[in-house]
Task: structure prediction
Amino acid sequence: MNSNIQRVLFMSVLLACTSVVQSALGSSIRAGERKNVLLIALDDLRPVLGAYGADYVKSPNIDQLASRSLLFERAYCQVAFCSPSRTSLLTGRRPDTTHVWKNSAMEYWRRTVNATTLPQYFKENGYVSIGMGKVFHPGPASGVDDKKYSWSPEGLPYYRSPLEKKYGPGNNSHIAWEADGFSDDQLPDGQVAARALQTLDQLKVNRTQHGETRPFFLAVGFHKPHVPFIAPKKYFDMYPPQEEIALPKNRFPPTDLPVIAWSVWPGFNQFGGVKEYFVGTDCFSNPDTAWTERCMMPINATQYLRRSYYAAMSYSDALVGKVLAKLKENGFDNNTIVVLFGDHGWQLGEHGEWGKYTTFEDATHVPFLLRVPGVTDSGMRTSALVELIDIYPTLVDLTGIPKPPVCPPLSQNIERCLEGTSVAALLDDPQAAWKNASFSQYVRPQAGLPYIPGRRNFTNGTDEQVMGYTMRTDKYRYTEWVGFNHITAVANWTDVWGRELYDHTQPTEFFNDENENLADKPAMKETVQQLHNMLREGWRSAIPTA
Result:
């Protein structure tokens, strides 16, 4: 066992196999010795980073963090959409518990589930809890950054850049913009980073001059590389001209893709620089034309958008570097656990898709780094299947605060319970046998075509009427699109709108997989039945057994 960390693993009565870790941060941690936590969230960041093998992007700061962290090669979000993904991570509950499946003011989890959030729980256990930028999804979907519950007085008023409206997704005049002459701090994320530096300075002053002994929980949320792809010009200059940017090798949908699985790129298709290509077409409403060459982004536009995404990502990387440098400068580096994650993946023309809004690997696969001082200093990697919902119990384990129990099947009225699994045991053995599956989902007609040939019409375009439940195992991704009651959050598994099966048994080229749907192949009938059974059994049956 790693000499830097000792753990006691025990069997959970509810799950029969959940690991609980008592580490070198340990069970004997007194409140004054507990590690600080720095949580860094990036919006729409797929694992297109040097540390994940994408040598064509510039991400030196995140790569350096990865070299001192446990890097999760196969981490997945619960929903490839901002609000439901962040709600799940920050409440520790899955989407069918929170009833949050899309970005909507009508889907605020506190109306449905009495959950204690991650920053709220740390606040209740003696931490100074401070957040800034996009941590929760903004607005009514989070009770306006959950400011009533999650943050300490020292963290209020909650900070959001006053430039968000001008340069954020609400301004869809341009899909991308090289901000020539702009410094980092003249854009929203630069201002969030500046506030993070100021906060770390104040935390140091409080410790050294005012006798503050409480550890801190600091959450910093960056908006990029979310659209619009805006960054100071110097980050665009890091990349070759657009004509030299590689195209996706799988520009068209998988063979035999069910129509229900297709996304029409909502929001994205209304940006200047995108919508002009589709004037006078029915590309986003007609299943007969949606997948044709005419309805794909042109080659030159695809290269332009990919280059712009990379530039926005490099801007985010630079800001992450500033925050990490300040953490070290102020003497917190060796006493702070750092978590960096993307809230979901993002499709850059693969399968003809743009954005999230699907159950594909590229939409659900996320970067996830965990730095634990004294444990991960030499860098570690794991191919274990993990989920963003696992972050909450992991941080509870590693800081030694009391761990909430695993949620029972009906947990809406329970304030403190969790539906994820701590990954702290993987610090001991990154190659340990782990979950046999991770679980994600996406709703329709949200982001999909307005009608599906041969199926009943949707009653409206907003309510959740079909749910795509998807499961990533070691060898396969399996998805079923089934009828869904959004009031009761109950699926009708006999009302099947489509199935997808993708083979991951052989290593595939980065962002070039899931190109053939095997679900209806006779040779895969037995495999489909086995995976169907696993999918219906759900996450409780996928928990690690050791």
Q: What stands out?
A: The two ends are 15 Å apart (CA to CA). The first strand starts at residue 36 and ends at 42. The CA atoms of residues 106 and 141 lie 7 Å apart.
